[in-house]
Amino acid sequence: MSTEPIPRAENAAANPFPGPGGAPRGVASWVDIDGPVHYLDFGGPRRGPVIVCVHGLAGSAVNWSALAPLLTSRCRVLAVDLAGHGLTRSGGRGTDVQSNRRLLHRFIDLVTAAPVILMGNSMGGMISLLEASAAADSVSGLILVDPALPFVPARPDLLVAAVFATGGLPGLGPALLRGVHRLPPEAVVAGILSLCCHNPSQVPADVVAQHVAVARRRSGFTEAGRDLGVATRSVIATAGFGGHAYRQGIAALSCPVLLLHGERDRLVPASAARATARAHPSWSVTVLPGVGHVPQLEAPPECAEAILSWLDSAGLPAARAATRPTSAVSLVRLLRRATRESR
Fold first, then answer.
1. Helices (H), the chain
2. DSSP-based three-state secondary structure for 77
3. Are 152 and 333 contacting, i.e. CB atoms less than 8 angstroms apart?
């Protein structure tokens, strides 16, 4: 159990990045899950369906800052920093996929009072799929944004292949990643956006500034390179040709699923999304032209339109189940939470 103190919650004034209509792009909060875990609360209607956003490898909660404000007229939106990412330091916790799946499960249990819709990008999509498979009563639906899917035969992008090959090496990878973190925060963010976006200039300037602010704070985390190396190797192992359990878990899903994918994704080819869609005809699928690996940053209005339309159609059962408190499960969760807080 970590003894690191939990930072005090920050208010809206401490988050000077206004979203549409002047609303803040997330209010920072913390919860104790074997140590401090940082998350952003984007607000939304008290009785709206709850969406928990899960970022990808080397990402953070601010990856959702462009999209979340476009959903809060209908939904309560939260975004968590996984262990070893964003402002959530590992602190002795694992940063591999399964460890962060367990952290996400506890986050859902502690912070929300109902089953939730999970919205995951890249590694976050993988972790969301694993959570839906392992704890179906906690997840009413999935919004997968360019998720890390099981590998399919495809011609790799050479730069992306080189990045993953070196980042996943036990000795060389962490050293290279530590070197990246010594670069100016602006250069770190620019490099990541260049890799992940088809057109980085589409990312709102204030959202880029949020990413730079997080990178600046992470530059002082000496364990960041090691943690990211562990996470990278875990993603490769889970999605690789030996990842039978991951494939079986996806095949067994019964909740509504929306798959959003950028046509110009260099990390997870659109061919992988199309192959997965063919194998799961009940899923709703939207492929966004001229968009890369992070559509929520590069094309937030298009993503929001697809998500809100899905919530009114195939995703309606998920939205109803994620609206709190409307079920016996929700009441049980509220009682469990009250019992923990009274101890």
1. 97-111, 123-134, 158-167, 172-181, 185-196, 205-218, 224-239, 244-251, 270-279, 295-298, 300-311, 316-321, 328-342
2. strand
3. no
What would you measure as the largest C-alpha separation in the chain, in angstroms? 56
Give CA–CA dist 219/239, Å, rounded: 29
User: Residue 13: its pLDDT value, please?
Assistant: 37
Amino acid, single-letter form, for residue 7: P
Question: Under a CB-based contact definition with an 8 Å cutoff, are residues 21 and 46 in contact?
Answer: no
| Residues pairing with 31 in the sheet | 37
- 277, 259 contact by CB (below 8 A): yes
Cβ pair 90, 83 in contact under 8 A? yes
Mean pLDDT by 10 residues, the chain (343 residues): 48 43 75 97 94 96 97 97 98 97 97 92 97 96 95 55 49 50 86 93 95 93 91 89 83 96 93 90 96 97 98 97 65 54 53
Q: Is the pTM of this model over 0.85?
A: yes
* Rounded CA Rg of the chain: 19
Domains of the chain: 12-152+235-342 (3.40.50.1820)
> Residue 17: its pLDDT value, please?
45
Closest CA to 79 of 95, 91, 66, 68: 68
C-alpha to C-alpha distance for 41 and 88, rounded to whole angstroms: 15
The answer to whether the beta carbons of residues 27 and 61 sit under 8 Å apart is no
- Residue showing tokens 């994918």: 261
